Amino acid sequence: MGQRTRCNVRTAIVLLMALSVGGCASGVISLRPIPKSPLAEEFALTSHSGPKASGRTLQLLRVYNLGNGQQGDNRPMLAKLQALNDREPSADIVYAMAELAFLGGKRAEPYDSRAAMDLYGASVLHAYDYLFDPRFTGTRTPYDPHYRGACDLYNTALESALRIVCAKKELVPNTTKTIHTAAGEWDIRCTLSNTRWRPEDFKQFEFVSNYEVPGLKNLYQTHGLGVPLIAVRRELSDGGSTVQAAAARYYPTKLSFPVTAFLRPLSKIDPMTGQLVTRNQCLLELCDPLTDDQTLVAGQRVPLESDLTTPLAYFLSRPEIDLANLAATAGLLKPELFFEKLRPGGHEPVVGLYMIQPYEPGKIPVLMVHGLWSTPMTWVEMFNDLRSQPEIRNRYQFWFYLYPTGQPFWQSAAQLRRDLVQVRQTLDPRHEEPALDQMVLIGHSMGGLVSRLQTLQSGDSFWHLVSREPIEQIKASPETAQKLRETFYFQPNPSIRRVVTIATPSHGSQFSNQTTQWLLSKLIHLPQTLIQTQQKLYRDNPGAFVGQSLLSVDTSIDSLAPNGPVFAAMQNCRRPPWVKYHNIIGVLPQQSLLGKWSDEGDGVVSYASAHVDDAASEITVPANHVTVQTHPAAVLEVRRILLEHLAELDASSVARLGSPEPLR
Question: What's the CA gap between 131 and 57, in Å, rounded?
């Protein structure tokens, strides 16, 4: 091998590695040595001399001659404060009780978890009274440090209590626990605020405060009341008839999602009878921050404490997701094994459509399709950023597609067409769900070609690149004939309304050249069944296939050869009037390392190849092929497109129905 050839091979290998944009699950999340707490410093929770009460609470105890409350069992002192507050209601007394109950719980927890549970529960209830009891409206002010302190006490004491419950695996919806406080016994019932969830959906809960997320650029949280949790979904195999049970086939194993726990005491007056309730009652609500980041208390909207990013990072850090990353290489180099691989813990193939949050009727699907030598992990940064926007997550749900990238992209497009038909049949067999007819596809690199092919009408254009004989005259087994028809004859999917292509080689890529094609031919192991089927087709139909037809294109690298006939065929296909195309192109600065090679492109795809004439919008982003989909400018453009889609739908709804109600 000559020096020039070796140089070309090294260049090909480097560039091929650059295409590996699947991301890496390892390092996304890490365990904190000590759970994060807003009260750690104020109360010296981690100090050998702690925990200690605040100066204002100690002063209140001195004023009422109640000692210092710094050691021993302080429940007798809490009883005295409760009696004092019953006689002279005071926000300061209630705050002191919340603080002392929390500190008492911290001291009791190593020795008596039952007593700690009672004290933590009392702290939450006292903090709630400080924040919402109408008797303190005139003295309670958000400018007082106690106000934020009461919020922190509510959240931290509730989390401390939940840790005790979770350690015993007793955080179970529709169950009741009882705590004992100076104000009496309280029955606390755990309930679900989201009707999409079922009690059996929850396998376990993890605490957001246990983790930090170094592997994602942006962390999306809201500040308010409640405890952010990571809910890990139980693997169900009930095969029920409900939509959620049907959709479960598309959930990855050990799917996790955000939950916020919120505790509220119920009124002591029965609203039905007007009679005094004999027992104190509370609801521990498990809320969905993806649906609503607020809750209603005493007629006012109260923000929930939430974290949308850490549960996502926790899910991505699972070992099963690392297997999916390894599948990116298998999908390129060994497509046959990729098709045979099953999803961990299930019977579904690893290829296909994934939902990483429970299916939500009424929300528009955004399907994200990765590129060469990649997996859905490539979308994590964009997904994290887009889902953080309430106007996006309230109207859209995000789906992901995984496919073997070693095969020609038109074969992957045929597989996606079949999978989209199947998912519609699974979720909405009667086609009664209008949101499913407003789908948006976003494709990166080769995934953009796979996505665009979902919206074209092939006519005879593709088949004529294979044979001049009518397809009906080709001798083939019924299975092979069906695959030929699905691959080379297709109609636009009527449910897809927009396609966003990012760094897509719409006219091929210079990366696909003789060197890379030779290299990949040595590395990619084609399925033996495919090779045998091709050979049999040629034997049974001598002279029927044109030279260098699409049937002879064996790998995805070959399929991306610049100016290949397939790209001209795509340009000549009819486009449906209901689809809008948008395009995002990476353009490296010419002074960068790869910019000199890029020919005004992203280092892999030139601007000339990425540009399309039929796009409703097209922008350039200063990023390379690997990172263009994570660049803030690309994320903002996708956000703009999604909001534009909603605005046009709502305007159409108003014109059609005379009502401003959004599509649901």
Answer: 17
Minimal CA–CA distance to 368: which of 393, 392, 399, 328?
399
How many Cβ atoms from other residues are within 10 Å of residue 645's Cβ? 20
List phi, psi (to 5°) of 90.
-145, 135
Q: Which residues pair with 586 in a beta bridge?
A: 621
What are the tens digits of pLDDT across the range 613-631? 999 999 999 999 989 999 9
Structure tokens given for 196: 């999409």
CA 130 from chain center: how many Å? Answer: 36
Report CA 215 to chain centroid distance, whole Å: 15
φ/ψ (deg, to 5) at 303: -65, 145
Task: Dihedral sign for Cα 600, 605, 607, 609, please.
Answer: positive
Identify whether 258 is preceded by a cis peptide bond (ω within 30 of 0). no
- Asked if 173 contacts 199 with a C-beta cutoff of 8 angstroms, the reply is yes
Which tokens hold the place of 445? 């690199």
- Give SS3 for 300: strand
Question: Mapped to the 3 state alphabet, what secondary structure does 200-234 carry?
Answer: HHEEEEEEHHHEECCCCCCCCEECCECEEEEEEEC
User: Taking a C-beta distance cutoff of 8 angstroms, is the pair 82, 94 a contact?
Assistant: no
End-to-end CA, the chain: 63
> Could you tell me how far CA 74 lies from the centroid of its own chain?
45
In degrees and rounded to multiples of 5, residue 402 shows phi and psi of: -120, 130
Q: Which amino acid, one-letter code, is at 292?
A: D
CATH code for the domain defined by 318-657 = 3.40.50.1820
Distance CA 606, CA 594 (A): 12
Asked whether the predicted pLDDT for residue 468 surpasses 90, the reply is: no
Whether 3 and 11 have beta carbons less than 8 Å apart is answered as: no
What pLDDT, in 10s, does the model give residues 58-117?
Answer: 999 999 998 876 677 888 999 999 999 999 999 999 999 999 999 999 999 999 999 999
User: What is the model's pTM?
Assistant: 0.85
Taking residue 221's Cβ as centre, other Cβ atoms within 10 Å add up to 15
Residues 6+ apart with CB under 8 A from 407: 335, 555, 556
Q: Where in the chain is the domain with CATH 3.40.50.1820?
A: 318-657
